[in-house]
Design goal:
Number of helices: 12
Number of strands: 12
Mean pLDDT: 84
Order of helices and strands: EHHEEHEHEEEEHHHHHEEEHEHH
Strand content: 15-25%
Length: 294
Amino acid sequence: MRKRGRSPVRSTAWSPRRQLRALGYTPSAIDHRLSTGRLHLVRRGIYAVGWPGSTPLRRWSAALLACGEGAALSHQSAAGLWRIGEERSGVVDVSVRRHCDLRLIGIHARSRTSLPTADILTRHGIPVTTPVRTLVDVATELTDNRLERAVNEADKHDLVDPETLRAALDAYAGQPGARRLRTLLDRHTFRLSDSDLEILFRPIAARAGLPPPLSKQWVLGFEVDFHWPSLGLVVETDGLRYHRTPAQQARAARRDQTHTAAGLRTLRFTHYQVKYEPAHVRTILNRTRCLLDP
């Protein structure tokens, strides 16, 4: 049986048998297209249309069709789609917003009836968890380094910056992954006021054997946090490792280049380190003092 005009099947990368039957294709017509290479069996009831090649988008589409209504790409597969992480080899992660007990080869299907519709977007025609939800989900599975890299990639691709992500986590309180992700972010988004920074940093520098520094000084056209002219040492504590605009990044690079070219040594500490890791800051300052003033 051949439909007149353009066949609806040809406009779809993947088609389940039920969709083909709904379009009017008989079992024999489906079998005929399988035998002539116009349809290619991917898994039971799921067919590739036109050519059998596999791409990530095709694999994900097929997995979602196999899982049925309410299915969305999630966890490490969602991270792969958003380009913030690597998918597990041979496994597609899917969350299904209904009660189910799906056991399908190559698919890790999770029944998540409480997953809000607001946590699902459509990307490249594929339902997928939002970047924030994806990061919360993968925080239960990734190592610290890979999780930090995922947050950086989300920032780099303008999906969500760390400050916005940190604020969004309030809505995920108590959910697996949220606490771990919050701990990671707090280390890098933590900020002290200028006065608190002065109060905390000066005693650390003194215990490292350094003389009192000048603070908020202009050095070669750039304002720095702390400066020891006699040692040629500059300490910056503007250290958010994450989100900066391109203009801010360019200015920071030019400042460091100018200071290095003039023979200055620059150290950078985050506000979190000054507050919660003073022993580390003191050790680095002391070692640097010994190098500059043997």
